Amino acid sequence: MRRIAVIFTLLVSVIFAGHRVAAADENSGAVTNTTSYWQSLLTATSAMVDSALEADFEKISQEVISAITVEGGPANEHDPLEKYNRLMFRFNQRLDEVALRPLAEQYRNHTPAIVRQGVRNFFSNIGDIGVVANSALQGKLEQAMWDTSRLTVNTVAGVGGVIDVASMLDLKKNNEDFGQTFGVWGVPEGPYIVLPVLGPRTMRSAVGTAFDTYLQAEALGALSEAAAGQEAVTEMLALNVINQREQLIGKDTLLAEAALDPYVFTREAYLAMRRCQVEDCDKIDYEAAPDENSTGADQLDDIDRLDELDMIDEIDRLDELE
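The structure corresponding to this sequence follows.
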């Protein structure tokens, strides 16, 4: 886990440094050299990953400095990492074609639906730990209380979350993560970026994903050690990837059918969704607001009229029976 965290942090640092260089070049009117920039950036990233695996921290610092001082940068101000993102987008699509989708299809074909539902419920319950934390960090204390109730009910009465008892009791599931929390705190979303396997993110949500993954891994490690006497974090995280991909079977054709440019479609849809989640526009109260001009007496009159209509309808039905 430590090595993964080191590599992830280094990747984010290098790309963010490249974004800053691009902005500086744009302000100075310098001509960008995208090809040489990305060649240097990817070379520096590869060297940094190798250094991290070798725990050569002196070499890591040298590579970081080298990456930050690369001259030139991408020209697209709306998606400054677009060339890298498109490359990673194609990589993820290819990885899905040759590995993730076939595994998900085998999982669906050979696993009973009731078992798959139990797996979904289990990982959803693990995710509720982060929901509780982020609801509280965002100041949504009442929501955090209900999220805690949901987590407790499913963990205790739902056999570790395998059965979603809370939904049967009308305790709805909320979705909060560290990326949303950072947004509520006013942290800028940063440039759009496509991560290997994980897919689209903003820089803010990418950092949030690192916190989310760490929290989930700690919870899975403690749970697996308590249940089986040994940690099985990697295996359980891999199962969750397949579980999530299986739920998208049948929906993934929408991207190819609806978009002339799947990359742009995915980017715009993701950014709109994340901004909506940060602003809580996906939690609209659809209950009609009372008429400010109506009084209590008017409302009682409406109820009386409805009662009268019901009585008339009942009398009509009795007449028809006679």
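Residues 81-279 form one domain.
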